[in-house]
Recover the amino acids of this structure.
C-alpha cells in the first residue's frame, strides 16, 4: 500500500513551467525602438541588437540628443496606452508555449511584472495573452512584481538577476537570451535558452521532466 | 561552521502571509448589494448577512424578480467600471495588514483573483491597493486566478474551496469569515479568522511564526 501511494504521488507530479512575457514572448525592445523612432525621427537611437542594459533608460540616457528633453520622455513611451497591447511576438514563442502546454506532465503559467505605473500595463498584459495565446490563458497569467513568490520548477525569463522576498525561490532560472543579456555571463545553476525556433526548448523541457 | 549556516538560515526565514482582497479586505458583498438596490430599487434583494453561496448569482437567481431580465443583469454590476475601485473596506482589515507587515519576521503579500472579464477588475485592484494600503503595496499585489501557484505559509481567504494546478499548495488556508461561508464547516487543517477587529489575528500570526 505504501508503494501504491508513492506511485500515485509520482504520477500526479507535473513539471511547472513559468514563462515571462516582455522580451521572452513579447518583443518589448523592438516595439520601443519603433515607437521612439516614430516620435523622434531626428534623434539618435539604439538598434535592438545593440541594447545592452536591462533598463532602457540606462543606455538611452548616454545618447547625445539634439533636444535634451527627449531623455525625460523615454518612459512615457512604454507607459502610454496601447504600448503593451501592441507588442509584437518574439519569433516562435507563442507556438512553443501552446505546444509545451499540451505536453504530458507539463503545466505552463505566464508570469509577468506590470509596471509600477500599472494603469495600462496590467490590463494590457491580459489583453496580450488573450489575443496571442487564447482566452483560456487568462487563467494562466500571474501578475506579480516579485517572481520569487511564484511556485514552479522553471522560470524562463530574460532578466538575469531576479530577487525578491524569498531567498530561495522554488524555480530554476532559465535565462531567455535577449539583446539586454547577450553579453552577460550566466552564472551558477542558471541555464540559457537562446530562442523558441530551433527546438532546443523541447529537449530542455524533457530533461527537466526527468529530473522532478 | 555547519551550525553557523543553520542559524543563518533560520534567521532569514520569514513567515510569508498571503491575504485575499474581495470579502477579506474589500467589502464586495456590501457594495454589490448597494449597487443592486440603487439600480433595481423595486426588486427583491439579499441582505449581506443572508448571503450564503460563494457566487452571488447562485443565490440571487432564486429570487422572484418583478422584471425577470434582472437575473441576467447581475454580473454586469460587478463587471462595470469602478465597481472594484469603489469597494469599501472590511472593518479593520487595512490597519491589520499594515501592522502585520511591520511585525518582525513577517512578509505580507496581497493575493487576488481578477475576474475573467479582467478589463476593469485587474487595474482597479491595483488602484484599490494603492489607495487603501499605499503605493508601496503595488509591489506586494499578486494577481492570479490560481492561488495554489503562489508561495506562502498562510493564505487568509474567505473562499473555502481553493483548488488549482498544485495539488499541495505551500500555504495553510485560514478561512476569513464572511457571510458566504458562515454556515460552512471548515474541515481538515484549515483554521478560521472571524474578523480583523478583535486582535485574534495577532495571536494567530505569532503562533504561525513559532511553527516555521
Amino acid at each position: 500500500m505504501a508503494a501504491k501511494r508513492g506511485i500515485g504521488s509520482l504520477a500526479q507530479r507535473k513539471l511547472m513551467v513559468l514563462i515571462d512575457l516582455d522580451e521572452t514572448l513579447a518583443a518589448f525592445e523592438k516595439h520601443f525602438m519603433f515607437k521612439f523612432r516614430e516620435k523622434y525621427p531626428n534623434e539618435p537611437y539604439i538598434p535592438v541588437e545593440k541594447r545592452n542594459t536591462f533598463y532602457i533608460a540606462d543606455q538611452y540616457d548616454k545618447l547625445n540628443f539634439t533636444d535634451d528633453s527627449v531623455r525625460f520622455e523615454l518612459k512615457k513611451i512604454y507607459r502610454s496606452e496601447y504600448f503593451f497591447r501592441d507588442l509584437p511576438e518574439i519569433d516562435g514563442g507563442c507556438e512553443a508555449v501552446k505546444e509545451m502546454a499540451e505536453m504530458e506532465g507539463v503545466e505552463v503559467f505566464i508570469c509577468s511584472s506590470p509596471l509600477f505605473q500599472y494603469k495600462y500595463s496590467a490590463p494590457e498584459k491580459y489583453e496580450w495573452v488573450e489575443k496571442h495565446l487564447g482566452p483560456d490563458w487568462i487563467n494562466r497569467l500571474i501578475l506579480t512584481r516579485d517572481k520569487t513568490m511564484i511556485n514552479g520548477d522553471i522560470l524562463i525569463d530574460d532578466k538575469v538577476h531576479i530577487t525578491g522576498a524569498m531567498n530561495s525561490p522554488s524555480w530554476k532560472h532559465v535565462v531567455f537570451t535577449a539583446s539586454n543579456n547577450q553579453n552577460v555571463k550566466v552564472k551558477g545553476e542558471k541555464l540559457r535558452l537562446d530562442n523558441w525556433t530551433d527546438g532546443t526548448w523541447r529537449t530542455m523541457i524533457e530533461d527537466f521532466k526527468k529530473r522532478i
